[in-house]
Amino acid sequence: MVLSAIRRLAQEEDGQALVLGALLMLVVALAVLSVSSLGRTLYEEIRLQNAADNAAYSLAAQQARAFNFYAYANRAQIAHYVTILQLLSANAIVLGLVSGLGTLSALLETAASVCDGPKQPLCKAIPVVGPALVTLATLAKALAGVVRTAARALLEVGRWIGRVGVPLLVAANLFLFASQAAMLAATLARFRDEEVLRVARGTAPGARLAFAEATFAANARRFLQAHLEEAMTLWGTGDPVGARLEDGPAGRRNWARRGMSELVHASRQDSLVYDRTFPGTGIGGLPGISALRALFDVFAGARFRGHTRLHSTAEPGQGTASARRYYEQMEKPGYGTARYPTGNSVGANFYLEVPAIPDWLAEPLGIGRRELGSVTATGTQGFACAWDLDRPYREMPAGAIEIHVPRFRCDLGRGDFPWWGIGPFMHFDATRDDCGSPESDFCQPDVWVALRGGEDEKATEREAAILRAAGSGDPLPEEGRIAVARALAYYHRPGTWREPPNFFNPHWRAKLAPVEEGWRHVGQQSPDLARALATLLGREEVRR
């Protein structure tokens, strides 16, 4: 019975699938665990990489915000410089009026000399005409006094412009630069470990910085190198005006001055302010101007002329001949006057031009002399050319009358028109040889963030080991997840992509950039960081 039962059981197939099923379940369980572990690993790596990308983009966006703030502040500085030139233009118009009043006063004094002083009794003895002449002479004398009083009042207005208006605007520009410097410091502070981790841990709570000191130094260096250091130290007008970019710090400062003054000139207003012609275009549509133009045309094409410009020239002297050369050059095109000046002086003039009057007559009357009715703001004292109210006339006897010729001088108001030149501002440094190529990102700064995963206590020791290995070339540990990200602060104005980067237009943006394209920059700026990243990511050619 027993043997038959055993033979029967041996022939039956029920229950064999259970053993196979148990073995299969073991294989499936191992596969599930492997997939879960792999998925978890991939998830952590993706999350760590996203955290690095977020931190890098955040730093680049902060840089872009700083550069855009620079642009707005620089535009405000340009507006202040334009306002300074407008004030000096108004001052020149005032001085031109003073010089014109000098000519009018001289004519009145000449008319009054017919029956003035000891000649009054003789004039009164002339029947009918004599008393009228005496009355006219007395009236002319009184009017001449009123004209001199009005001229003194106008000179005081000009002194107020030079002593108060211009310094206030210069102080406003210094405040704007201080705000730019504060933005620079705030941006550098965002590179600190705490700030980077604050952004990164929003995505990956367990993230830690890998070789934080090296990345901070590289990011800060790249950011600071985007600034032209000499532009941040501008003050005064003592640099040689002929110094060019290759001439060292003085040339680089002049390069920055020319960049600012070029934009100041480009922002200027025509007609009455900078290139003045009265009556002229720009105001011809105003009521009564057309009639004035017709009246001026009657007088042999007479025109009031004037200019206000920054200059690139040595400090002009206060003599009449020096001032005359200065203002004659103002109307000639060239590097030293209207085009790309360093702005170490400012000239503004306003004079009457009557082509039909010969020079021998126009000269003593102050007609056509371009230095008259002018203010020159320099780096030391400044001066003005106008009618000399202290010694108003030269008297020349001519029979029954005494001709009065107005005196003009070019050392009036000495010290009333200071000019400190183009002040400090943030300027993009595009002076390096490789700034014109896309391989260098046109010298636009990039930022790097390197993170490692995990929250164990050995993380800090591992970071230190990475730094030591980066400096010595020793092999680095292989364990641990590392995520590297790079972002770029870039300048691009839509429609004008060829325009070079600058700190005058607020079109800076941030974007993530390929890590591979930035290896050469890292190697140049921070060799230690480059070796560490190369070793961790297997970039043997960079490590060498």
Quick overview of this protein structure:
By secondary structure, the protein is an alpha+beta fold. It contains 14 helices and 13 strands.
Detailed description of the structure:
The longest helix is centred in the N-terminal third of the chain and has 97 residues, at 16-112. The strands form 3 sheets. Strands 2, 3, 4, 5, 6, 7 and 10 form a 7-stranded antiparallel sheet that branches. The protein has a 4-stranded antiparallel sheet with strand order 1-11-12-13, sandwiched between helices. The chain is of the alpha+beta class and 544 residues long. A hairpin with a 2-residue loop joins strand 8 and strand 9 (401-406). It folds into 2 domains: 65-72 and 185-229 and 428-543, no CATH class; 76-182 and 231-412, no CATH class. The chain has helices at residues 2-11, 16-112, 120-125, 129-189, 193-200, 212-225, 249-266, 289-298, 320-330, 359-365, 459-472, 519-525, 527-537, 540-543, and strands at 208-209, 275-278, 303-311, 345-349, 351-353, 374-377, 383-387, 393-398, 401-406, 408-412, 446-452, 482-491, 508-512.
Please describe the topology of this protein.
Elements: H1 2-11, H2 16-112, H3 120-125, H4 129-189, H5 193-200, E1 208-209, H6 212-225, H7 249-266, E2 275-278, H8 289-298, E3 303-311, H9 320-330, E4 345-349, E5 351-353, H10 359-365, E6 374-377, E7 383-387, E8 393-398, E9 401-406, E10 408-412, E11 446-452, H11 459-472, E12 482-491, E13 508-512, H12 519-525, H13 527-537, H14 540-543
Antiparallel strand pairs: 1-11, 2-3, 3-4, 3-5, 4-6, 6-7, 7-10, 8-9, 11-12, 12-13
Helix pairs in contact: 2-4, 2-5, 2-7, 11-13, 12-13
